[in-house]
């Protein structure tokens, strides 16, 4: 770590050093604690240019997200998998050292071996029975899938042991510390990426609603925190993220809670979003609505002003649950971002990647999703 943090040359010699040099924030110095005198977005001279780039990228991401949701459960699961692969790639690269990697052929492949073993464990556990339900018409495929389900845990354990033996057999003198560091770093990434993904994928097949609502609330909170901070932010919120403000935090919280109540009412009326999926087909779903999604009359409290036109309204029971999700997304989700900010400061980088213009990498966009998905 000390050797990495001291790389300050204006012409770095390795690809990893050049990548980190390019990503260093212009508003940070190497100690990671000092920022320029005007870090807030409201005082940023280039904020409108940045705002347009970020808005353009956001619209493309939202459009793509809506299209995938429309395509159904299996495609959403595939989207989650792709996001996990990009996140893992960005996180793996944080501790890469080109000279050491050249002396250790196969170390990158070993990291990905553990990654795909974890992927098989998580996705196999959740999707195996649904796969069996999909191939019931073909006796051979059904028996094959049933056998794989029966020995799923044994297969995953065997693959992990292969990786463990691979790691031991490739240990090299004078490289032990780096190799064990990579081994520990890989397992930490797997915990961060796949622990939350098991909840996410399970939510998808219990009804897209349970994936779409929490994910949308995080997106709404992130967008409005940026907007309120952009136009009204004056009071810094936390030192880990100098551009985050109390105005942005409070404005986003109120907006997210209101959005949760309204959005739950809208999404909860579509069977495509509320019906669980028991197989891996992509056809349209129809089912008897769960009581959570059946409208109930609600009489407004007496303190509502008399000029308000409605005295009674129909409310889906899930809307009250959505208020809790909105509160959770408003308070807990930002701490995922703060955690990522502290992490980036520790590595002296501005972003985890540069794949999304105006946003950074995939991990930069998913940092707030990780913690709330576990809780929700």
TrEMBL record:
Keywords: Lipid biosynthesis, Lipid metabolism, Membrane, Nucleotidyltransferase, Phospholipid biosynthesis, Phospholipid metabolism, Transferase, Transmembrane, Transmembrane helix. It holds the Pfam family CTP_transf_1. It catalyses: a 1,2-diacyl-sn-glycero-3-phosphate + CTP + H(+) = a CDP-1,2-diacyl-sn-glycerol + diphosphate. It is found in: Membrane. Residues 1-28 are annotated as: Disordered. Pathway: Phospholipid metabolism; CDP-diacylglycerol biosynthesis; CDP-diacylglycerol from sn-glycerol 3-phosphate: step 3/3; Lipid metabolism. Requires a divalent cation for activity. The keyword Transferase applies. Its EC number is 2.7.7.41. Signal peptide: none annotated. It is a multi-pass membrane protein. Residues 1-16 have a biased composition (Low complexity). Its cofactor is Mg(2+). PROSITE patterns: CDS. The chain crosses the membrane at residues 59-88, 109-128, 148-171, 183-202, 208-233, 245-267, 318-340. May be involved in the synthesis of minor phospholipids and in modulation of IP3-mediated signal transduction. Belongs to the CDS family. This is Phosphatidate cytidylyltransferase. It comes from Brassica napus. The lineage of its organism: Eukaryota, Viridiplantae, Streptophyta, Embryophyta, Tracheophyta.
